[in-house]
Automatic annotation (TrEMBL):
The keyword Cytoplasm applies. GO terms for molecular function: urocanate hydratase activity. Catalyzes the conversion of urocanate to 4-imidazolone-5-propionate. NAD(+) binds at residues 48-49, 126, 172-174, 192, 238-239, 259-263, 269-270, 318, 488. This is Urocanate hydratase. Pathway: Amino-acid degradation; L-histidine degradation into L-glutamate; N-formimidoyl-L-glutamate from L-histidine: step 2/3. The gene is hutU. InterPro entries: Urocanase (IPR055351), Urocanase-like (IPR023637), Urocanase_C (IPR035401), Urocanase_central_sf (IPR038364), Urocanase_N (IPR035400), Urocanase_Rossmann-like (IPR035085), Urocanase_sf (IPR036190). The active site is at C406. Its main location: cytoplasm. It is found in: Cytoplasm.
């Protein structure tokens, strides 16, 4: 298909759709499939194992065509990456609503899901892939940075200087890890089995060097740690093998985690002793054998992580359900170490902080820098945000549409929409801006092995909150609302929702943004207050959030 070879979002002010709302969604969809942004755009795979933006190439073309002709009071419906109908609604309501990867709970297994996917009836949408909000590694960078900062604060006097972090996976999300470690002053050893992925991360400076042996990795890491020099080392190899090798050698890194795409044993995780070519062959010819081998490897992988913990390392699951997979494969003690959300990020959710992101539809990086400057001046009392903006300005360069992600609290999110919309209206920015977010927030994802693990009131598996979030965002004027299943931790393990709005400078956009941007942080606070978290209860009073009970 010609479109995929050259796909990249249009930029500038000229519209090819009938409104900025539909234009924004089309640009975001195309941006997520830009070969510089997506992990494998020929397969429409954006990130996270097999997370896709459209069902197939034909459907991608139809979606783009439909968006181009959609009237400003119509709503297009996407069913797992396939446009199924449009209906006349109201200008204030979303232009696109989408539901992805949903299956009836009893049938929510990878086996049944793959059968439906193979028949062309559904698509795995991950989280920001099917909601067209993926912006490359930067999207998850701040969450990863905040996690590493929290680890540093809790265990190492606020810095990772002189500390070695062992992890794996340099995919769409995982490659945020090395940079987050070096940004906190530490040394990262990241094990990755695919040399091409390492090459990509070396190109954009997320990693400093590639090595082929554990000896080389250790020598470099120890030397850098000794001199408190930040360094990101990519080690070509199989994570389970390397972790077990280190256990045998008696080496204990300071921090250990993992971000292979372990949520999907068949497509996201390479078993020990299997090359990438052999993996492709086995997947196609003997999928059950493949899963059996992957399950065996994952048990030894998780056992090694637990052994590191017993030796005193700080160990946590990084949102890929590796503990869940090991437990399913028969390893009873798989949950010996915690998940990163319950351990490090939940306190931020309780405050209403969450991952907001904005994308310059102009294609002009200057728009992002201008918004940065306003944030640095208006939110100057929030040291966390200012430190983040200064870091990324220094370290990140843009590919695809220029974008910024930033964890903002209730008040800041309320303000940011109006600030950006005003900057568009005044002509300060070259074109409108899309405002969206990750699905990984307190009220927007129900995932008992991740976002809702070990909730205070035991409500881990209650999945009403992301549905309420999606419905409320629909009522409040979002441009796109999506409801999804299986993101992050895989089929059967999560329900979540996405939201995108557009600051086009109009009065209507301002009204929408004022309402919308309170919903995510507000529900975040309410969900955690409802579960009994004292900080969230205080935030309800502090921000005067309306709560009937
Ligand atoms: P990806 O599919 O883009 O990358 C996974 C990487 O792991 C690939 O590069 C692959 O080659 C490598 N890999 C697989 N098996 C390996 C092995 N045994 N040894 C070494 N390398 C191996 O996935 P991604 O987008 O980077 O996401 C990684 C995981 O994190 C997924 O499970 C995803 O669902 C989850 N996730 C985490 C967060 C978060 O905030 N932490 C957010 C979203 C998703």
């Amino acid at each position: 298909m010609a479109i995929l070879k050259t796909i990249s979002s249009p930029i500038g002010r000229e519209l090819s759709c009938k409104s900025w709302e539909t234009e924004a969604l089309m640009r975001l969809l195309m941006n997520s499939l830009d070969p510089r942004v997506a992990e494998n755009n020929q397969e429409l795979i954006v990130y996270g194992g097999t997370g896709k933006a459209a069902r197939n190439k034909e459907m991608l073309e139809v979606i783009i065509k439909e968006l181009k002709q959609l009237e400003p009071d119509w709503t297009l419906m996407i069913q797992s990456g396939k446009p199924v109908a449009s209906f006349r609604t109201f200008p204030f309501f979303p232009r696109v609503i989408s539901s992805s990867s949903m299956v009836v709970p009893k049938w929510a297994t990878w086996k049944e899901f793959s059968r439906l996917e193979d028949k062309g009836l559904t698509m795995y949408g991950q989280a920001t892939a099917a909601s067209w909000a993926y912006i490359g590694v930067q999207g998850v960078l701040q969450a990863t940075f905040e996690t590493m900062s929290e680890v540093a604060k809790r265990y190492f006097n606020g810095t990772l200087k002189g500390k070695i972090v062992l992890t794996s996976g340099l995919g769409g999300m995982g490659s945020a890890q090395p940079l987050s470690v070096t940004m906190n002053g530490g040394v990262a050893i990241v094990v990755e089995i695919d040399e091409k992925k390492i090459g990509r991360r070396l190109l954009n400076n997320y990693c400093d060097i590639m090595v082929h042996t554990v000896d080389e990795a250790l020598e470099l890491a120890n030397e850098a740690a000794l001199h408190e020099r930040p360094m990101a080392i990519a080690l070509l190899g199989n994570a389970a093998d390397v972790y077990n090798d280190l256990i045998t050698r008696g080496v204990t890194p300071d921090v250990v985690t993992d971000q292979t795409a372990a949520h999907d044993l068949l497509h996201g995780y390479i078993p020990s002793g299997v090359t990438l070519d052999q993996a492709d062959f086995l997947r196609n010819k003997k999928p059950e054998k493949y899963v059996e081998l992957a399950s065996k490897t994952i048990i030894s992988h998780v056992k090694a992580m637990s052994a590191f913990q017993e030796r005193g390392a700080v160990v946590f699951d990084y949102g890929n359900n590796i503990r869940g997979q090991a437990s399913k494969a028969g390893y009873q003690e798989a949950f010996a170490f915690p998940g990163f959300i319950s351990e490090y990020l939940r306190p931020l959710y309780c405050e209403g902080r969450g991952p907001c992101r904005w994308i310059a539809l102009s294609g002009d990086p200057g728009d992002i820098y201008k918004i940065d400057e306003v944030i640095l001046s208006k939110f100057n009392s929030d040291e966390r945000i200012c430190r983040w903006i200064r870091y990324v300005q220094d370290k990140i360069y843009f590919y695809g549409l220029p974008a910024r992600t930033c964890w903002l609290d209730y008040k800041e999110r309320e303000q940011i929409g109006e600030i950006i919309n005003h900057m568009v209206a005044s002509g300060e920015l070259a074109a409108p801006v899309a405002i969206t977010r990750d699905h990984s927030e307190g009220s927007t994802m129900a995932a008992p092995n991740r976002e809702t693990e070990w909730m205070m009131d035991g409500s881990d598996a209650v999945a009403d909150w992301p549905i309420l979030n999606g419905l409320l965002n629909t009522c409040a004027g979002a441009t796109m609302v999506s409801i999804q299943h299986g993101g992050g931790v895989g089929i059967g393990n999560s329900i979540h929702s996405g939201m995108t709005a557009v600051a086009d400078g109009s009065i209507e956009a301002n009204e929408k943004l004022k309402r919308l941007l309170k919903i995510d942080p507000g529900l975040n606070i309410i969900r955690h207050a409802d579960a009994g978290y004292p900080t969230a209860k205080k935030m309800i009073e502090k921000y005067g959030i309306n709560k009937p009970l």
